[in-house]
């Protein structure tokens, strides 16, 4: 019995082209080794969990933090995710 290659070829072309494009983008992007700024680390640690928005006349500031623990099963191993971020939107007339 012959193997239907047409459906397999469609998937191979689709995922092969996505893989090739991802590889090309990854080769073009140059990831530089950054440094750890202790002042920024301390600022992230001081952010309270949740989202806060503060508005002034010339700008809007937003901070947010999500901290969760995920476990594999009831007594299984787990890991903690701690994500925080800052944002500022400033609009001026030029």
Give me a quick take on this structure.
With 94 residues, the chain is an alpha+beta fold. It has helices at 5-28, 38-46, and strands spanning 50-55, 59-71, 78-90.
Description:
By secondary structure, the protein is α+β, with helices and mostly antiparallel strands. The protein has one domain (5-90). 35% of the residues lie in helices and 34% in strands. Strands 1-2-3 form a 3-stranded antiparallel β-sheet, with no helix packed on it. A hairpin with a 3-residue loop joins strand 1 and strand 2 (59-71). The chain is extended and about 70 Å long. The N and C termini lie far apart (73 Å). 0% of the residues are buried.
How many distinct beta strands? 3
Helix content: 25-40%
Mean pLDDT: 87
Shape: extended
Strand content: 25-35%
The secondary structure category is alpha+beta
Relevant terms:
94 residues; alpha+beta; 3-stranded antiparallel sheet
Please specify the SSE layout and strand pairing:
Layout: H1 5-28, H2 38-46, E1 50-55, E2 59-71, E3 78-90
Antiparallel strand pairs: 1-2, 2-3
């Amino acid at each position: 019995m012959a193997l239907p290659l047409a459906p397999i070829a469609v998937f191979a072309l689709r995922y092969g082209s996505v893989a090739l494009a991802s590889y090309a983008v990854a080769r073009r992007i140059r990831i530089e080794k950054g440094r750890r700024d202790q002042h920024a680390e301390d600022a992230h640690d001081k952010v309270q969990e949740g989202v806060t928005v503060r508005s002034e006349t010339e700008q809007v500031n937003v901070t947010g933090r999500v901290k969760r623990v995920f476990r594999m099963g009831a007594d299984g191993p787990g890991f903690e995710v701690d994500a925080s971020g800052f944002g500022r939107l400033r609009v001026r007339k030029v």
